[in-house]
Amino acid sequence: MREIMIVTRENLINLILAALLLAVPFAANALGQPFYVTLATRIAILALAATGLNLALGLGGLVSFGHAAFFGIGGYVAGILAAHAFSGDPLLFGLSGTKQMWVIWIVAVILSGLVGLAIGAISLRTSGVYFIMITLAFAQMVYYFAISWPAYGGEDGLSLLVRNQFPGVMTMIPLNFFLICYVILLLALGLFALIRASRFGTALQAARQNEVRVATVGIQPYRIRLTGFAISAAITGLAGALFADLNRFVSPSMLSWHMSGELIVLIILGGTGRLFGPLAGAALYVIFEFALGGLTERWQFFLGLILLVVVLFARGGLLGLLAGKAKHG
C-alpha cells in the first residue's frame, strides 16, 4: 500500500511538473514576455539531454563524463548541415546540407549513437574511476578536434543565420519552437519509462547492482550496458541539435567537460533514476542561473551549496524529497 501511495504521489508530481513547463510559456507569450518562453525551452532541452544521461547513470550506474561529446556532436550536426544548405557547398560524397529539422535530428541521433557505441565499446571494459576518466578523455579529444577545425569556426564556433525548419511550423516563433522541444522531451521520457519497465531495463539495473549474478543467469552485462550507453548517447545528441537551433550558434563549449558535469548535476538535483528527475533538475538549475546570475557572477557557489545539501540530506533529489524513496532502482 505504501509503495502504491509513493508511486501515485510521484506520478502526481510528474504531472504537475509537465503541466507547469507547458503553462509558463503560454502565460509568458500572452504577457508579451518571449524571454521566458526561451527560458522554458532551455529547460526542456537540458532536461532532454539529462534524460539521455539518466538512462546510463540512473539505470546503469555509469557515471559518464563524456556525454558532452554527444551533446556537442548533435549541435555540430545541426550547424554544419545548415551551413552547407545556406552556402550550397556539398558535404562528403557530394551530399548536400539541409535546413529540415527532422533530417538533422535523424543524422544527430545516428551519429551520436554510433560514436557512443564506439566510446562505450572501449570505456565499458573498465569500471569505477577508470570508466569516468576514459569517458572524460574521449570527450576532451572531440572537444580539441572541434577547436582545431577551422572550416567550421574552430574555437569561435559556428553561427546559424536562421533557425532550421520544421514542416508546417514557423520555428522562429519562440512558442512554436518550445512546443517542438516539449513534445520531443515527453517522447524521450516515455521511451525512458518503457525501457525502465522492460526486461532490458531490468537487466540494466541488475547489472548495476550485481553483474556477477546477472552473468550467472546467462545475460552478458557488457552488451546490456553497451546498448544502454549507445541509446543514452543518441538521446543526448538529439538534445544537442535542438540546443544549437535554440541559440542559433554552436561552439566547442558544448563539448567541454563542464557540460558533462552540468548534466550530472541536473540528475542529482532532480533525482537519479527518476523519470522526471532530469526535468526537475533542469528547472532548478535554470531558475538558479537566472535568479542568482543577475545578482552575482559567482552564482555557481550557491548552487554548489545546494548540491552539497542534496547529496548529504536528500539522496533522492527534489523528487525523492517530495515523493519519497523510489520504487525503481
UniProtKB/TrEMBL annotation:
GO CC terms, sorted: plasma membrane
Cell compartments where the protein resides: Cell membrane
At the top level, the lineage of the source is: Bacteria
Give the way it sits in the membrane: Multi-pass membrane protein
The molecular function GO annotations come to: branched-chain amino acid transmembrane transporter activity
Q: Name one Pfam family in it.
A: BPD_transp_2
Asked whether the keyword Membrane is assigned, the reply is yes
Q: Does the keyword Transferase apply?
A: no
- Transmembrane region(s): 12-31, 43-62, 69-87, 102-122, 129-152, 172-195, 226-244, 264-288, 300-323
Q: Where is it mostly found?
A: membrane
Q: Which UniProt keywords apply?
A: Cell membrane, Membrane, Transmembrane, Transmembrane helix
Q: What is this protein called?
A: ABC-type branched-chain amino acid transport system, permease component
Q: Which organism is it from?
A: Neorhizobium galegae bv. orientalis str. HAMBI 540
